[in-house]
Task: structure prediction
Amino acid sequence: MKVEAAIATGTGSFQIDFIDVDEPQGDEVLVDMKAAGICHTDFDSLSWGKPIVMGHEGAGVVRSVGPLVRKVQPGDSVILNWAIPCGYCFQCLEGNQHICEVNSPVTSGNKASGGHAGLDRTTYKGQPIERSFSLGTMSGATVVREAAVVKTTVPIPFTSAAIVGCGVMTGVGSVINAAQVKPGRSVVVVGTGVWG
Ligand SMILES: [Zn+2]
Ligand SMILES: [Zn+2]
Result:
């Protein structure tokens, strides 16, 4: 299907243009995007030296699924996830899925993380085009693997769900994994931004 997407030029800017997104195969899921967050890494991705379908946090509705998909079905609301743990390496089995040794998640930006749908699933002007963090959420639709979607089971606006995949989990991970904050501890929060 043809959808509009924000495409980083690789030289510091972006354009809105049509891309082709393939039908899902195997354990892939085609998601109609409803909202995408904007992260500072998206600004960086404008200058990664190659065209990229922008966006690595987003939420949407499942349009169609491949024959091997089991946990979601068309019509489900989902949040997209770029950090897919393998589930069987030492760290995953220890409960440290955030530092999976096999599907090392992208944390430095300009590279693809493991476990995702192939780059050839999305094309631009007849050529395969990379999706930011293997997702490419700033697009009318995107095709990803089943492991890259999380079904939302409580009502949550798409605009709020969209930021769970990067902004929220980065903050939660900083608190739980890095700072190891426990209930009752005193903390200082910096960089909260400006409301209103
Ligand atoms: Zn981000
Ligand atoms: Zn793992």
